[in-house]
Amino acid sequence: MFVILGAVALSALAFLLRAQPAVDEFITRYSGVVIPTLDAPIGIPVWLSVTHFLNTLFLLLIIRTALSIRSKKRPPAFVTPRRGVLGQPPRRIGINVWLHNTVDVLWIVNGAVYITLLFTTGQWMRIVPTTWEVFPNAVSAALQYLTFTWPVENPWVAYNSLQVLAYFGVVFVLAPLAIVTGLRLSSAWPLDAPRLNRVLPEWLIRRLHNLVLFLFLAFIVVHIDLVLFTGAVHNLNVMYAASNDVSWMGTLIFIASLSVLAAVWFALTPSVQKKLAGLAGTVR
Questions:
Q1: What distance in Å separates the CA atoms of residue 235 and residue 79, rounded to the nearest whole number?
Q2: pLDDT band at residue 54 using 50, 70 and 90 as cut-offs
């Protein structure tokens, strides 16, 4: 309820601001999109569509297991891995924690592939700010979104400045924070390091880790809403079909991907999780 009221209040404020001539001139000057440089890549490569889907799958499972861990309910089984991590002896953990950690590793590997290709192909220029003009353009884009006049853009060529800052924050701020704080809370962290544990107290890191989780959730909700409301067919075709053509191919691939996500979600029953965990250790 507070989120809805807050969104309504922000939208009302944006409408009042846009009624001012100075704000209208500001939006005219800053359209919301920074024109890309001549050497910036155009288009979405297939590898980006694939890593995007895998990122969606792994994040879905990470959020599912994270919420299970936060519920404080007793897990249906416990796992003692055959090997410890980073020199630490194996520790008995809940099967939901084991699955969370396992998917974390897959998510990190997928992210490493994504980052490597991002910088070796020049695609980094699409989500890394390269000029200070990104900030006033981001404000302009936010005002346009809040007043339901979407910024004129073409995601095949460039994202608007608000998207650029959001994607940059998720990839280069939230993701590393999730990894570092997750490592502190995992069984790989040494218990016999009192000085280090005083510098990085568990209660503080756990709160930060939970904050990162909720920021990811907020980003996902807003991201999906804007994709669907600002031209779903074209947006889905760009991301899922890696094409700028006007067709339903991206929508069909998106629907198929949702089917895969749902199938994986329902397939990971406690009995299946126990069988998977049994491949890595002793399940009791």
A1: 42
A2: very high
10 Å CB burial of residue 91 (0-12, 13-18, 19+) is middle
Report how far residue 188's alpha carbon sits from residue 182's, in angstroms, rounded to the nearest whole number.
Answer: 10
Residue pair 31/140 in contact (Cβ under 8 Å)? The answer is yes
Strand-pairing partners, residue 80, are: 282
244 three-class SS: coil
What is the DSSP annotation of 159-203? --HHHHHHHHHIIIIIHHHHHHHHHHHSTTS-SS-HHHHHHS-HH
CB count within 10 Å of CB 242 equals 20
Cβ contact 135:161 at 8 Å: yes
Q: Average pLDDT of 113-131? A: 95
Which one-letter DSSP state was computed for residue 283? Answer: E
pLDDT digits (tens, 9 = 90+) for 143-184: 999 998 888 778 899 999 999 999 999 999 999 999 999 988
Of all helices (H) and strands (E), which one includes residue 222?
helix 202-229
Q: Nearest Cα to 243, choosing from 235, 232, 252?
A: 235
Alpha-carbon gap, residue 210 to 216, rounded angstroms: 10
Cα→Cα distances 53→45, 59, 205, Å? 13, 10, 29
Render 58-124 in DSSP notation, one character per residue: HHHHHHHHHHHHHTTPPPS-EEEESS-STTPPP--EEHHHHHHHHHHHHHHHHHHHHHHHHHHTTGG
Q: pTM score > 0.85 for this model?
A: yes
Task: Supply the angle between the helices 175-185 and 95-120 in degrees, to the nearest 10.
Answer: 150
User: From residue 24, how far is each of 14, 29, 31, 73, 99 by CA, in Å?
Assistant: 11, 9, 11, 53, 51
Look up residue 282 and give its DSSP letter.
E
